[in-house]
Amino acid sequence: MSKQRDTRQQLILAAERLFAERGIEGVSLREINLAAKQRNTSAAHYHFGSKEALVEAIFELRRTEIGRRRDELLDRLESEGRSNDLRALAEVLVRPLAPELQTGEEGSRYLEFLAHLFLMSPEKVGEILRRHQAAEGRWSALAIKALPGIPRSLVGTRLFLMARHVVTSLAVYHRRGLETDELSLETYLSDMIDAVAGYLGAPASASTLALAKVRDERYAAEQASGVAARGDGGG
Predict the structure, then answer these.
(1) Dist. CA 143–CA 140, nearest whole Å
(2) At residue 181, does pLDDT exceed 80?
(3) Phi-psi category of 27—alpha, beta or left, where left has phi over 0 and alpha has psi -120 to 50?
(4) How far is CA 135 from CA 15, 24, 69, 139, 205, in A?
(5) Which of 102, 218, 94, 85 is nearest to 163 (CA)?
(6) Do the Cβ atoms of 107 and 14 come closer than 8 Å?
(7) Res. 129: pLDDT tops 90
(8) Residue 66 and residue 98: Cα distance in Å, rounded?
């Protein structure tokens, strides 16, 4: 059993490194086997079955510690009565990922992996987050409450775009090799938190609200039409 766990871990880490370097679509299970130094050429398929399952496994490996950091910040924010403070909420989004910059290549590889996932497979990010509604879902619920003047559909888009911005910005920062300078890193993080808070809290223009209303009404009509068609078919 221990040997199986070791093999799984080696495959997960090899997949994370290759996905970070080349993206998920640019890597095969065979290449992951070779990178993990597995003599059994079907090891990755045996343990995971697909690249999608490996993506989930990488996320599971890393999210426990990151989720713990986010929960600690959320606990403090709520205990201090600052759950409507947009800058505090922005900090909860940014800070839990920042230590990954200072944990060597492994941590930075995870940021690169996430950046590829956000940019190339946003629908996959959505699927994963819907299945893991722990600290991420808790943060999103507070952010939605803190923006009562903005339609929920627009808030959802903002939250996704900001999460992607934070991940890709941290990955770019790592590539520039600046994370060893503590003051530079802290300045960068503080400015990013300011920018995220500003974006989240920016009022929606009359034009955007009008467009969002038309879009939401069209979507509701399409959904109702689909339900009606299924109902007729089932009669």
Answers:
(1) 5
(2) no
(3) beta
(4) 25, 25, 9, 6, 30
(5) 94
(6) no
(7) no
(8) 10
- Average pLDDT over the chain, rounded to an integer: 85
Q: Which residues contact 145 (CB under 8 A, 6 or more apart)?
A: 83, 84
* pLDDT of the residue at 1: 42
> What angle (nearest 5°) sits at the alpha carbon of residue 149, between those of residues 146 and 153?
85
pLDDT at position 235, please?
Answer: 43
- Long-range Cβ contact pairs of 132-138 (< 8 A, separation 24 or more): 132/59, 132/63, 134/67, 134/71, 135/67, 135/68, 135/70, 135/71, 135/74, 135/96, 136/67, 136/70, 138/71, 138/74
Q: Which of 8-17, 38-47, 81-90 has the lowest mean pLDDT?
A: 38-47
DSSP code for 117: H
How far is 18 from 165, CA to CA, in rounded Å?
A: 22
Q: Cβ distance 50 to 72 under 8 Å?
A: no
| Domains identified in the chain and CATH numbers | 2-204 (1.10.357.10)
Q: What is the mean pLDDT of residues 4-32?
A: 89
For 17-29, what is each residue's pLDDT tens digit? Answer: 999 888 888 899 9
Length of the chain equals: 235
Q: How many CB atoms lie within 10 A of CB 228?
A: 10
